[in-house]
């Protein structure tokens, strides 16, 4: 399957680490209970999604629900020592 549409990426301002994909640059279709959504990027049709996320799964979720969500992992806190 050849991708023909852009995937727009958004972050939820209501739920830390929650992100979503939409086919619409304004976030239409993303769940309102996690709004407001803030756009932060776009995956063009000729690009692969970030973090190794499978484009086919994203597009399938968008086709069935109008969006696809994912969570980012928290970065581990590392101690630093000043000498």
Structural commentary:
The protein is globular, with a radius of gyration of 15 Å. It has one helix at 55-65; strands at residues 7-12, 18-22, 37-43, 68-71. 13% of the residues lie in helices and 27% in strands. It has one domain. A four-stranded antiparallel beta sheet has the order 3-1-2-4.
Unreliable spans are none
Specify the biggest β-sheet: 4 strands, antiparallel
How far apart the termini lie comes to 55 Å
In total, how many beta strands?
A: 4
Oligomerization status of the protein chains: single chain
Tell me roughly what share of residues is in helical segments.
10-25%
Beta-strand content estimate: 25-35%
Total count of helical runs of at least 4 residues: 1
**Strand order in the sheet with the most strands:** 3-1-2-4
Mind telling me the C-alpha Rg? 15 Å
User: What is the general shape?
Assistant: globular
N-to-C series of helices and strands: EEEHE
How many separate structural domains?
Answer: 1
pLDDT average, as an integer?
A: 89
Structural class: alpha+beta
In short:
By secondary structure, this protein is an alpha+beta fold. The protein is built from 1 helix and 4 strands, in the order E-E-E-H-E.
């Amino acid at each position: 399957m050849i991708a023909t549409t852009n995937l727009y990426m958004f972050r939820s301002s209501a739920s830390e680490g929650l992100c979503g994909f939409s086919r619409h640059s304004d976030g239409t279709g993303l769940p309102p209970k996690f709004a407001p959504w803030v756009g932060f990027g776009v995956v063009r049709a000729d690009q692969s999604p970030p973090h190794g996320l499978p484009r086919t799964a994203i597009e399938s979720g968008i086709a069935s629900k109008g969006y696809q969500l994912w969570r980012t992992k928290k970065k581990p806190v590392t101690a630093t020592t000043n000498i």
